[in-house]
Amino acid sequence: MCAFDLAGRPVSWTRHGVIHRRGLDGTVLELVRKPGREAWEQGVRRLTPEELAACLGHVRSFLKEGWRLLGKPEPLRRAVELDPNQDAARFRSIWSPVMILPPDQYRSLVLQLTEGCSYNLCSFCTFYKKRPYRVLSQEEFTRHVEEALAFMGAGLAWRRGVFLADANAASLPDSHLLAALSWLHRRLEAPRPTDSFFQPEHLAGFSSFLDTFSTLRRSLQCWRELAERGLNSLHLGIETGSDRVLRVLRKPGSAAQAEELVGLLKAAGIRVGVIVMTGVGGPSLAEEHVEKTADLLNRLPLDAGDRISLSEFEPDPGSPYVLEEMAELLDRRACREQSRALRSRLRFPAHPQGPVVSHYDVRQFVY
Ligand code: SF4
């Protein structure tokens, strides 16, 4: 079975019972369910260039054979004529690598208002270590948006909402962010003849990551103005409710600041996605991490439109967290136990009355 978007790009396929998921940049992940120590576990592997070429070859011959047998139907023509390698190269000429998205934003149209992370010093995170932080000028952003819309073409029909990347786009200075959102809102609200592939409502609603420490001076009034310009959800990597664990992660801020920020965002009518990591801080801080994180989450005014994502810590061997042995590493099983313990302490009503609480496997991300 193969799935293509309406521009003819292969998106996913199953071969010999193994699911493959392809990103616009040409990356293909292989997802295998295998029995683990306690239950089924999801194995994730990135295909090598050789495997990728072979795999795409199979997909294309399957596609061409199916197209011929079906009498060469027009809707499949784009998929048959598309060169996936050239298409991926074109994507990479318009976007810098899209490193990660929140779990409910995988279908967004990603637009890069900034590149990299304005902080970039967390001990566990290597996403942007080799990429200097940069804010795109309005002229560059305009060009990026037009090229992105043209690239997506008919594939835009599948997209929902816009995600402003990279790491902390929502922490840009107030005037810059307000101007960028106003322009984008106007641009997408009034489609041009060349925009035949999307309805304005498909791309309504802007979302972004936000750290918990760089917008402390932004007023409720400003958050409301941003919401009026379409900013309708923000995703906060809170990671932990323990300030001691936060120090191990070298992430500025505190649980109290995170709580205050979430309160402001909710008062402004902005939906909130909270991301916490289980397994950080090692065994010595495990109990404190679970207890204080559950306490913090339970204090947040989250409701049915919000989300709590529990991400099991995936230590990067090249990160300061590992290289400087900042804490003993916990295995996946211990991370999962922490996730269970955290869930069991949450006091929210079950969704749809309360927020969605979900597992967030960052290894499965591909854009
Ligand atoms: S975790 Fe977020 S704030 Fe920290 S370095 Fe990574 S992208 Fe930047």
Keywords:
TIM Barrel; 2 domains; five-stranded antiparallel beta sheet; seven-stranded parallel beta sheet; 367 residues; binds iron/sulfur cluster; globular; 11 helices; single chain
Short structural description:
The protein is of the alpha/beta class and 367 residues long. The protein contains eleven helices and 14 strands.
What does this structure look like?
There is one protein chain. This protein is of the alpha/beta class and 367 residues long. It has two domains: 1-89, no CATH class; 95-364, TIM Barrel, CATH 3.20.20. The chain contains eleven helices and 14 strands. A seven-stranded parallel sheet has the order 6-9-10-11-12-13-14. Strands 1-2-3-4-5 form a five-stranded antiparallel sheet, covered by helices on one side. Strands 7-8 form a two-stranded antiparallel ribbon. A hairpin with a 5-residue loop joins strand 3 and strand 4. The longest helix has 21 residues, at 49-69. The radius of gyration is 21 Å and the shape is globular. The two termini are 20 Å apart. Bound molecules: iron/sulfur cluster (SF4). The site of iron/sulfur cluster has 11 residues, from loops.
Ligand inventory reads: iron/sulfur cluster
Spatially, the strands of the biggest sheet line up as 6-9-10-11-12-13-14
Helix content: 25-40%
State the low-pLDDT regions, or none. Answer: none
CATH second-level architecture of the largest domain:
Alpha-Beta Barrel
The total domain count is 2
Series of H and E elements: EEEEEHHHEEEHEHEHEHHEHEHHE
Radius of gyration using CA atoms only: 21 Å
How widely separated are the two ends? 20 Å
CATH topology grouping of the largest domain: TIM Barrel
Number of beta-strand segments: 14
CATH level-four homologous superfamily name of the largest domain: Aldolase class I
Largest sheet: 7 strands, parallel
Number of distinct helices: 11
- How would you sum up the global shape? globular
The percentage of residues in β strands lies in 15-25%
